[in-house]
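Summary of Year 1 activities. Much of the first year was spent building the evaluation harness for sequence design. The harness presents a backbone, in tokenized form, and records the residue chosen at every position. We chose the following record to illustrate the format because it has been used consistently in internal testing since the harness was completed.
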């Protein structure tokens, strides 16, 4: 008995969009980062392209699966800004506050740090925008724009976060072997805890703001920028890892509170988790 159904790459991608996204993202980013890590070629340009792997793949898959309408829907979520002002405060203040408390505890326990000098406001703004444009913009359309809503269609918000967090951690792995990259000096297990813990908070933020992609971008940028401005990362000249361990411990206390408060199923008190609806399937 013959069948008119024929296998096609697009049908395979439609059936496994998240798996396809993860695979292609790793192919692009790892394909550039691993050769740089082992000295095959200069890493400046390749590293910039590799950072944009998640966004490149998300845009390409969205265009292939949903066309211009899908890209427009993705773009509208990027500029969804009308939420309670408290979410702006949370996005911009959580990372710095977390690290400052960790530094305070470290110093209170008798530890020492390098000099703490906060740049002038104009420099802070320029640095924030630089991190947003050259780093965060390459990731969030992929992790939270494409993958998370589709994962939440099949799994609870907490499970989706843990899956995404593990993949996001794995995506960074070549950087731990790249000369002159700060990841080399961060304990691998500590970074894994940091990424997975923050991923849960990103999901909570994403669901509470009705799937806005603006706030994950702001949150991600503020967090990354805080780690560069505040003296918590160990360096090639050594330095204590205790402030970072304290910070990650505090992070997981917050994560536990969010899960208890918002619920593991939806990670949201105001609404159910945000899931992706495929227009093609919805009309059949």
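For this record, the design step produced the sequence shown next.
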């Amino acid at each position: 008995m013959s069948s008119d159904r024929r296998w096609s790459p697009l049908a395979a991608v439609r059936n496994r969009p998240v798996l396809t996204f993860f695979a292609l993202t790793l192919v692009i980013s790892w394909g550039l980062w691993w050769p740089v890590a082992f000295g095959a070629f200069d890493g400046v340009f390749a590293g910039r392209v590799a950072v944009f792997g998640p966004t490149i793949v998300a845009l390409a898959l969205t265009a292939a699966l949903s066309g211009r309408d899908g890209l427009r829907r993705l773009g509208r979520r990027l500029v969804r800004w009308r939420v309670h002002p408290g979410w702006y405060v949370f996005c911009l203040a959580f990372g710095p506050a977390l690290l400052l408390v960790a530094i305070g505890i470290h110093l209170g326990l008798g530890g020492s740090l390098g000099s703490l000098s906060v740049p002038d406001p104009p420099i802070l703004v320029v640095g924030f925008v630089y991190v947003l444009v050259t780093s965060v913009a390459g990731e969030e359309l992929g992790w939270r724009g494409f993958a998370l809503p589709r994962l939440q269609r099949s799994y609870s918000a907490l499970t989706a976060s843990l899956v995404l967090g593990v993949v996001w951690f794995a995506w960074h792995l070549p950087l731990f072997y790249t000369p002159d990259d700060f990841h080399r000096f961060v304990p691998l297990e500590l970074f894994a805890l940091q990424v997975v813990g923050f991923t849960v908070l990103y999901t909570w933020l994403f669901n509470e703001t009705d799937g806005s992609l603006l706030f994950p971008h702001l949150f991600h940028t503020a967090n990354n920028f805080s780690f560069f401005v505040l003296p918590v990362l160990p360096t090639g000249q050594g330095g204590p890892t205790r402030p970072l361990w304290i910070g990650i411990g505090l992070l997981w206390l917050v994560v536990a509170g969010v899960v208890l408060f918002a619920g593991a199923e939806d990670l949201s008190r105001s609404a159910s988790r945000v899931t992706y609806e495929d227009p093609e399937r919805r009309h059949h």
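The two ends are 25 Å apart (CA to CA). Quantitative recovery figures across the full test set are reported in Table 2.
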